[in-house]
Amino acid sequence: MPHTAVSDNVHILSAAFLSTASGQRSSIRNCLIVLVSTFVVLPAFPQGFNFDIGMGPGFPIGKTNNLANPSYNFVVGGGVNLHSHFKLSSEFMFHGLPVSDDTAQLLTVSEVKGRLYALTANLIVGSSIGGEKSVYLIGGGGWYRRTLELRQTVLQAGSKCAPLWEWWNVQCVNGIFADDITVGSRTSSAGGFDIGGGLAFRLGDSGANFYTEIRYHRAFTRNVETEVLPVTFGVRW
User: Fold this and answer.
1) Which of 82, 98, 216, 234 could be cross-linked to 42 through a Cys-Cys bond (beta carbons 3.0 to 4.6 Å apart)?
2) Mean pLDDT score of the chain
3) Cα separation of 220 and 205, whole Å?
């Protein structure tokens, strides 16, 4: 594919992902100010540390849903316990944003991969609801990075068809094999916020909890926001 055509296709898909600007940033800024103020008035000395790891399905919503398909999310983090009901947690999240096959065909490429990475700082406010169960709210903000990669299958010539290629399910005939190469990419980084809640179940006397959580993420990526709704199952201890 000619380089100019590839560049045009990347611009087309980027424009579709980033079509129009939206407001309400001042209200989000006010929410973050309240969040920071809450951190200030909480006890100054930590009462231990917390860690979490989890994964589950992830769903694009809003304008993001027009191009990206559901995928999965993975999260890992840790922080300090400020109080029996208040925790701080810094987290890394990965969320897949696979683009539909129909869109890839329209762009005359074999595959389009989208990904969302996030580093966020969050406040967790929880309360017991009896027995070994508790509920919590979580919210915060941080840095988000969305990447978009266009890949095309091309035929390449090798010296011979190595037996190892059969192990990796690579089709090779007379030294010619198919290979996927990146023909275009775009990246957008921006601030954003997240808010959600979950249920936690204590795991015996270990001090660990199994949790199930749903959280809304919104990143102010260029021209239009990226919105996802991951559902996570994991362990926090």
Assistant:
1) 82
2) 77
3) 42
Distances (CA, A) of 12 to 23, 27, 95, 114, 172: 23, 31, 22, 15, 34
Determine the pLDDT at residue 68. 87
C-alpha–C-alpha distance, residues 92 and 217, integer Å:
13
Could you tell me if 122 and 163 are in contact, meaning their C-beta atoms sit under 8 angstroms apart?
A: no
Q: How far apart are CA 9 and CA 3, in angstroms?
A: 10
Residue of 215, 168, 226 whose CA lies nearest to 73: 215
- What string of H, E and C letters represents the secondary structure of 107-154? CCCCEEEEEEEEEEEEEEEEEECCCCEEEEEEEEEEEEEEEEEEEEEE
pLDDT tens digit string along 206-230?
A: 889 999 999 999 999 987 789 999 9
